[in-house]
Please model this.
Amino acid sequence: MPDPISWEFAWPYLLGAWAGGYLLGSIPFGLMLTRAAGLGDIRAIGSGNIGATNVLRTGRKDLAAATLLLDAGKGAAAALIGASWGPDTALMAGFGAVLGHMFPLWLKFKGGKGMATVLGALFGITWPVALAACLTWVLVAALSRFSSLSSMLSTAATPLYAWLFTGGIRFGDGASRFTAGDLQLIQFCAILAVLVWIRHHQNIRRLLKGEEAKIGGSKG
Model:
């Protein structure tokens, strides 16, 4: 187990955690899997995204599932490795992994929309929040059939889930009271949610125009 971080010299750990997470998150599993399967460049298909939703448009559900698991796995792995040095480095590593997936160095900073990696990072840091976000995604997807809307609404809910699961409401003496919860985790979830919404800006336009493709469609 590494030595605990001294706050006087915390920045090398935090920077190293972010950089390691970024490099791990930059691995474009969707692109690698589709090329290995002889399907060409996934960026020339559908939305041009490298994530699982676009991989599904190739008709290969197995590759889409593998992409989903690997993209989530790199977020979880980054957070768990970062957690070896403490909660702050876990957050920085998870943040780096999400940025790496969205803006990968190897693909001229043009990557995916980050939902799977966000969930993976959250599972590595706080699994109750991640599980609640997953259930929200499934519920919205079942009702709307829009992957983009599901991603945006489920990530938008994560700061609330983080607040609730870290003592946002406490009960005692026959009454409930509100507390601040884990502000650092809440802020982390809020930042990830903003990033996901930014990466979905084109989807937002299509949703407003009624042109967004539903799950299994040709765009998104």
Q: What stands out?
A: Strands lie at 169-172, 175-178. The mean pLDDT is 88. The first strand starts at residue 169 and ends at 172. Residues 11-209 form one domain.
